[in-house]
Fold TIM barrel protein.
Amino acid sequence: MAQRLLILQSLWAMERRLADQPEWPLLTQLTMIRDAGFDGAGVRFVDPGFATEATGFLRDHGLTWQAQCYPRTVDDLKPVLDLVARLGADHVNLQPDVRPHRLEECIPFLEGWRRLADQAGVPVHVETHRDRMTTDLFFTLRLLDCFPDLRLTADLSHYLLGREFAWPVDDANHALIHRILDHAWGIHGRIASREQIQVSLRFPQHQGWVGLFMGWWDHAIRSWRRRAGPDAVLTFLCELGPPPYAITGPDGAELSDRWQEALLMKDTVRELWRRIEAEDGRLT
């Protein structure tokens, strides 16, 4: 087998949050994801009933999923891993919902979560995310000094916004981001600017930011292909969040169509993978 890319859609990103319209039922959301050609979904493994219903549909239709969780203690990961043992998952995406001020305070959490993951035989990726252990780019790089084999999920929108890189992004900041990407075993897809966590992929004024992220994802894919095994699978989760992530006007309505933009992101990243794959093939 060859290396593969699977593009998933976040179920959180399927929330509409419209005052005058109901939410799509879960079955509607999952059917939309299937029919649009996604390879699966990102599923919160916090509510066992929700996770069971969502993964049952995905399994029945030959799709995959990542298990998302937000532990505040080491032991909080145990029921998630128990649920994964019952329902399966490509991997666990862990947002570390703790905020230590010192590197030394992080070590027991990461060592504990890694120990539980090893015992369960389940891959666990630690997500880069604001208001989490990994909220700060520099702090996370120090975590990598301590845990050189730490597997990350790279959501770069948080670091561009948090550090508010000047435009154009200079070589020094690119190098910091590349180091994060060189430890990434999964990617969460969102386009940010230096002032906004989520901007439209289609608006002309945002195309510089779109190009920036496409360049970073290009680096991430190439780096992963060098590190991963010959039959490994890389997951890319489209995660265009509902308001207040999505920008709204005075009436509370979103200024862009997130679902259509998720489809655009899916197709664009698939084409990026195909181009990289073709280039690698020509070099062999």
Q: What stands out?
A: Residues 189 and 238 are 5 Å apart (CA to CA).
